[in-house]
């Protein structure tokens, strides 16, 4: 499956590294991110390979740009991957969140919520990122597995994975591979910027792999 693209490809379709490099005036949260090592790991460990220009690669590149901007660009007005005044997102049919909501609360908190294994209501943007960057110091990676429908409503299956080599809220790491799978439906504008995206996955399946037996789960305390 492929998709027709304009002669001059817009920045948000050129890939994450291109967006990072074109950062004049961008307000980074903690400096310009570097994905060099991530790119090497993903190339080695991914389970699907798609041809350049395929719809699968277009979707994967756009989502990676979005995830980078959500995590590293402090001002949603500088996110090139979305139509900011119309963008919204939710998880498993829950409450919709805007770009400003994600920028304020953080994607981990919005996507995980309050569970027996993690309390999003007790975390900030920075603390949530600290938790999972500590748990997965080598990175937590993402790939598209299948794309089921083309724009304007793009449905696709994905995989997240990483190695549990750092502590999670006091629990010692196991070194084991952690994987989660899910589906998303992204509605996009004519220029393929994201208007809204719905995610569907079992967050407890992910958290049980790192939190079973940890002090947070055992006592209910932070």
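Sequence proposed for the structure above (222 residues):
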């Amino acid at each position: 499956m492929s998709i027709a693209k304009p002669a001059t490809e817009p920045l948000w379709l050129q890939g994450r590294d291109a967006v990072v490099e074109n950062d004049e005036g961008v307000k980074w949260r903690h400096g310009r991110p570097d994905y060099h090592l991530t790119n090497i790991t993903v190339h080695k460990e991914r389970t699907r390979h798609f041809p350049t220009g395929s719809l699968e690669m277009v979707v994967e590149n756009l989502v990676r740009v979005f995830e980078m901007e959500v995590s590293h660009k402090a001002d949603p007005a500088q996110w090139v991957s979305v139509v900011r005044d119309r963008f919204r997102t939710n998880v498993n049919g829950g409450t919709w969140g805007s770009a400003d909501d994600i920028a304020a609360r953080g994607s981990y908190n919005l996507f995980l919520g309050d569970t027996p294994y993690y309390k999003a209501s007790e975390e900030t943007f920075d603390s949530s990122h600290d938790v999972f960057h500590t748990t997965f110091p080598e990175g937590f990676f993402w790939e598209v597995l299948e794309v089921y429908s083309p724009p304007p409503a793009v449905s696709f299956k994905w995989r997240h994975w990483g190695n549990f080599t750092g502590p999670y809220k006091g629990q010692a790491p196991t070194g084991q591979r952690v994987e989660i799978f899910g589906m998303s439906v992204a509605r996009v504008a004519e220029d393929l910027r994201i208007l809204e995206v719905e995610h569907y996955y079992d967050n407890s399946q992910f958290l049980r792999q790192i939190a079973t037996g940890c002090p947070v789960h055992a006592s209910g305390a932070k």
